């Protein structure tokens, strides 16, 4: 179990980790798109971090603030897709204690909205290729009776990493990158990379809190 303040701190940590990799994400995007994915996502996440200075009572409220801020601050397709993933949490139950089951509810609801709005499928070399395996990993963990939130987030990260890595073997089917044909192969999709960084930050933020608790 994780309390709401711990969850909010982990989310802020995750957002900051993506911001810290702005240049890396821009460099990935220079090979496939406009070269501004890192800059755009970082702008939205800085705004989301600012938004999370307000008090939160529920886990879904944290994600909703992130989604609202990112939609307001970001432009382009990435802004909309990130925004809908997080803002979909408004449809979720209100809980002040984070459990693997509740995290699955948040992630699954976001994924459903992301699929609906993007029109992409697994294997199209998009952010979905990282998000889908992350959510599947959480779903499997819950099914197997996992009760540790931090371990659940670690499994989500492993799924996202494998998914993002797999985009190097894919041909792009969305955005400007689809016109590159074979030249889009061997490069990781920037959206999959940024979402993987977010999952990495969630886990590392939660793990730091666990060390603190132990002390």
User: Which ranges are low-confidence, i.e. pLDDT below 50, for 5 or more consecutive residues?
Assistant: 211-215
How many individual helices?
Answer: 9
The main pleated sheet reads as: 2 strands, antiparallel
Placed side by side, the strands forming the largest sheet appear as 1-2
Helix and strand composition category: mainly alpha
Mean pLDDT: 91
Estimated radius of gyration: 16 Å
Q: State the separation between the terminal residues, measured CA to CA.
A: 18 Å
Order of helices and strands: EHHHHHEHHHH
Task: Indicate the percent of residues in helices.
Answer: 55-70%
Percent strand equals: under 5%
Oligomer: single chain
Specify the overall morphology: globular
> What is the number of beta strands?
2
